[in-house]
Amino acid sequence: MKWIKTLKFRLIATMMGLVLLTILIISSSIVSNQRQAIERQARLDSTALAELLVNNTLTAVLFDDAASARQSLEALRVRQDISRVMIFDGQAGLFASYQNNASDELPELDPIRRVIRTRTPAFIENEQGLEVIMPMLSHGDVIGVLYLLDSLSSLKSQLSEFYKVVALTAVVAFFASLLAMLWLVSLFTKPMNKMLETIRDISIHRDYRRRAPSAATMEFNQLSESFNQMISEVELRGQQLETMNAELEQRVQARTEALETALDVANHANLAKSQFLAMMSHEVRTPLNGVIGFAELLKLSDLDKEARENVRLLNDSAQSLLALLNQILDFSKLDADKVELEKQRLNMASFIKSVVETNRAKADRKGLVLELNLQDSDADYLVDPLRLRQVLNNLIDNAIKFTHQGRVKVSLMVEQYEVEHWLRFEVEDTGAGIADNKLEAIFSPFAQADNSVTRKYGGTGLGLAICAQLIKLMKGHYGVDSREQQGSLFWFKIPVQKLDVIQPTPRLKKAPVTVTQSNGNAILLAEDNEINQSVAAGMLENFGYQVEIVSNGLEAVNACNKKRYDLILMDYHMPQMGGMEATAMIRNSRGQSFNSGTPIVALTADIQDGVESEFRHAGADDFLIKPFTLEQLGDIIHRWLEKAESEDKAASVIDESVLDEIRRMSGEQAPELINNIVELYLKQTPDLIDDIHHAAKDGDSERVFRAAHALKSSSANIGAVRISEIARQVEKLGRDNRIDHVSAHLDTLVENYEQVRLNLKSRLGEA
Predict the structure, then answer these.
(1) Can you give the pTM of this predicted structure?
(2) Where are the alpha helices (DSSP H) in 547-591?
(3) Does an H or E element contain 451, and which?
(4) Which of 25, 123, 258, 530 is most deeply packed, by most CB within 10 A?
């Protein structure tokens, strides 16, 4: 259909449309005028004939000689288009008539009576033809009426012949015009097509030596000459550009080599700096660790007052040196963009109380009041506790350092803007304050409000600079309000993700899980994942239920055909037959299955829209999202079995059976072995999660797969089934090269790891 868009087609279509419209207008005008002329002539002929008949039959009507009148009418037999002639008397009664291929029916009498009354002729056109009604007058009185019906067959035949002539003439004119249009369009399109062909060849082959051919018409010939001049100019410019490109490439190559050399030098310098910092950190921390360690040991000794004070000063100096070293290393990392946030679930109220209590001893030694003001902060948030603590400790330490009397107040406020949550932290003191002209400089590296500050209070001026960079890294804002001798207020706020509060998991030794035993209820579990089988079976057996496990939907259908169960737990995605299809078969197998009415609870980690409604439509009675807690499973079982099972509000994040198996196999060495395994797991897991995060960010699906696979295995070995399941899902995404969906699992992964970490830490403490 591309030819429809061509200029040739559109020109011909437009011009022929105009020709066709002209022919139609002219033909219509001629036909209309000719038809009117013929119809007018037919009426005149019919009127003249009627008047002649009136004159010829008037005497017969006067003397009531109907035979003579009929004889006069019979003379019309030679006129084939005269269908009927009738003479009526003065009372509209039929006097005489003549019929020629017409029915014997009388015409309507109303027009005849009207002519008798009005004494004027009447002309009526209808499907039969033209009716002429003429009054017959004698001395001014109407003595009769002549009715004549002309079928107009001669007129119609004449018009038909005329239409054929006009149509034939129009067709001939149309095709003659078409030939003329084709010739005219070719005069325009042929040279233009040649020009387009030349342009196409130049565009495709980049052959600027091609030239457009000359044309027969003056206008196109001028166009060809102008185009050829333009191509010559382009060819010349192209040659000049190639020369310039060659020179530019040489310059770029030389400059690139110089930059590569400079970059190598810079990289070597940066590497040397990093190696130096690492070496210095090690070399300084080694003796510093000895100093701090011995100072702590000395504090435990029985020393006199002066020696105890000297030990305290020694310890404080060592701690200050360690803080200084940490600041320098942190600043180097921030300056090189090597610091990344590690967000974890954190209860903000507990966290900030811990930070304040850490600094209370320093405030007490200076006789300062350290206050804490919390406003609606008893909630869990996803933040980096290490970096947040670092910023708060620095601000509180500065406030205590520069305040000699009065108080230091730490405040936490929650700000919400539509769906966003922000935490605003304020540290207010009654200290020396800062001059207005120094406020902008205090967040710069190695800057102090006054040179005398370093001599009086010490420090490098890096603390606030590090705070500023960390707050920016957390996508937050910061500022300070201060007046000399009136105190300062440092504030910052960061965006956070608010999480549902999770009640802390009680330690099993202090608050063991207890459940009400069932009366031997049989539950069928359809689940293909072995870890999930173990987790669910362990939970159900803890409740005291008899559990039978199948690995796919087909096995579930077969089992339901052999035995009656009290409850069926059906997974969604399984091999051979999925849970939705199996549920539908169990529900629809009336008479064949013992469990067509047994409650079915769908188990799935697929939270896409429509999954629950489809599962329920297939016949499921309830829906439980993975990962689920022991409490959630107990609630749903209690709901459908109507048994009084106690709610398990302390669902452990660790599968106890895994650790119990390690204890059983290890004998007396079990505590030490479990501690080693836990420590190794806690050390490796953050690195694996971080590796998954960066690999997904870099688009490296292979790296995501490897890290998730390692995390899945190590988590399963320690009993962290939730993390293992999430890692399995991430592993599959990496294997399927769908890493754009990995980020949706990272927050859940971090949240679950924080719970596992706290649980395992508590176990280490108990061990």
Answers:
(1) 0.34
(2) 553-560, 579-588
(3) helix 451-457
(4) 123
